Automatic annotation (TrEMBL):
GO biological process, one term: DNA recombination
Keyword DNA-binding: yes
Protein name: Integrase
InterPro entries: DNA_brk_join_enz (IPR011010), Integrase-like_cat_sf (IPR013762), Integrase_recombinase_N (IPR010998)
SUPFAM superfamilies: DNA breaking-rejoining enzymes
GO molecular function: DNA binding
Alphabetical UniProt keywords: DNA recombination, DNA-binding
Native organism taxonomy: Bacteria, Pseudomonadati, Pseudomonadota, Alphaproteobacteria, Rhodobacterales
Length: 324
């Protein structure tokens, strides 16, 4: 590549007064409180050749920073802020925990932390930048939902279903708790009052039974991370009191014995209808599961039915595949 400098430099590339080149990128206003800077600079090199060789990687890293910022943990964001403000070398020293005490680098980190505090950055980020000591990522409600969603997404269909439920919950939680609390407050600091606040918010827009189902996802997600991370914390979403929850005229409840007695004459006159009725009655399976059975699904020796998906009938959930 030639060192001849063209009249039109690539986007975001500027030539400094000393002849060197650097990358300059304005941070979108919505991300400035998160990143802690209005403009990002990166040195590209002393010559045009060096600058063009460094540009693709620098641009990719800046793009990743801006695109992923909303999803970063406090630890990740702290490191990115240090890297952007004080350079790669300082960031690597912080990562390796080798920042010398009472050094100019420590002073620079202290000053950067003070600036972030003035900009009302999250406390977890300010503390890590100020001290130059990164903390392990703290388990939060946002991380809890993410981990539960990943655990349940074992098939494309399951991923789509749980993804939709979790996304609706994220929206409701942001309305109740705010983005900062959802993403940064430790799960151990979430209280029973927080759970009640989410319950009340849900009841203001959905039925009591829908609120029960949605809160059930939160409760199960927290139970999942409690087990996976060997936590010894209570699940504040357990046994929430929800007025109006229970059976309604729209619920499909099990048939009572008296209802079964009334139904029998309607099916007893036809052999096929009677076989379907008896199978449904004695197995508790769904209508589509029984009506879609194949001959090979019926094990006469073991006296059981193999309920599994077929080309003409899928199952409601992965756990619906079973023998009865």
């Amino acid at each position: 590549m030639s060192d001849d400098v063209p009249l039109q430099l690539p986007r975001y590339v500027f030539r400094r007064a000393n002849g060197s080149f650097r990358y300059k990128r304005n941070v979108p206003e919505r991300l400035r409180p998160l990143i802690g800077k209005a403009t990002l600079y990166r040195q590209l090199g002393d010559s045009y050749r060096e600058a063009m060789q460094a540009l693709p990687l620098v641009h990719a890293r800046i793009e990743a920073l801006l695109n992923d910022e909303a999803n970063k943990s406090a630890r990740e964001r702290s490191l990115e802020i240090i890297r952007g403000a004080l350079g790669d070398e300082v960031a690597e020293m912080v990562l390796a925990e080798t920042v010398p005490e009472y050094s100019p680098i420590e002073d620079a980190l202290n000053e950067l932390g003070k600036d972030l505090h003035k900009q009302k950055m999250p406390t977890e980020v300010v503390q890590q930048v100020y001290t130059g000591k990164l903390k392990p990522d703290v388990l939060t409600l946002a991380m809890t939902l993410d981990q539960y969603e990943a655990y349940k997404s074992d098939t494309p269909k399951a991923a789509r279903e749980i993804g939709q439920r979790v996304e609706r919950l994220r929206t409701d939680m942001k309305s109740v708790f705010g983005k900062q609390k959802l993403k940064y407050t430790p799960l151990t600091d979430i209280t029973r009052q927080d759970a009640n606040d989410l319950r009340d918010h849900l009841l203001s827009r959905v039925s009591a039974n829908s609120a029960v189902r949605m809160l059930g996802v939160v409760r199960t997600a927290i139970n999942h991370v409690i087990v996976e991370h060997s936590l010894t914390i209570p699940n504040v979403f357990t046994n929430l009191k929800i007025k109006g929850a229970g059976a309604s005229k729209h619920d499909r409840l099990p048939l009572t014995d008296s209802q079964l007695t009334l139904l029998e004459p309607a099916f007893s006159g036809d052999a096929i209808a009677w076989a379907l009725y008896v199978t449904l009655r004695d197995t508790g399976a769904r209508v589509s599961e029984i009506s879609g059975l194949r001959v090979k699904d019926c094990d006469l020796v073991a006296k059981c039915l193999d309920i599994s998906p077929t080309p003409w009938r899928s199952l409601k959930t992965t756990n619906s595949q079973r023998s009865v």
